[in-house]
Specification:
Layout: H1 2-9, H2 22-27, H3 32-40, H4 44-51, H5 62-68, H6 75-78, H7 83-86
Length: 105
């Protein structure tokens, strides 16, 4: 937790590069939904609902999604409000958006 606080305190200078949402990626080429569904072991229909924002994306499948999409869809694309809290080790990685700190009340 201290590492996360230190990173956030330093306002990590990272920039958002080539972001893509899951729906856009799935629609980009025929068969992507089926391939990603097989890799993540999530039913294709449920995966489609996840891409449409109708179902939550399980945190446990982020690496498979990133790998299958050649890092075009990353945790910050799937969970823009919380990715840095769940995976603080990704702060500062290539393509990661700048982390905005909330002011303490």
């Amino acid at each position: 937790m201290q590492l996360l606080q230190t990173l956030l305190a330093n306002h990590c200078n990272c920039y958002y590069i080539a972001a893509m949402d899951l729906r856009t990626w799935l629609d980009g080429e025929r068969g992507r939904n089926a391939r990603l569904a097989a890799r993540t072991q999530i039913a294709p229909g449920y995966l489609s609902q996840m891409a449409d924002g109708k179902r939550p994306v399980p945190h446990s499948v982020w690496q498979e999604i990133a790998d299958e999409t050649a890092q075009q869809v990353m945790p910050w694309d799937l969970w823009p409000e919380e990715w840095f809290l769940i995976w603080p080790d990704l702060i500062g990685t290539k393509g990661a958006p700048k982390v905005k700190l909330a002011k303490a009340a």
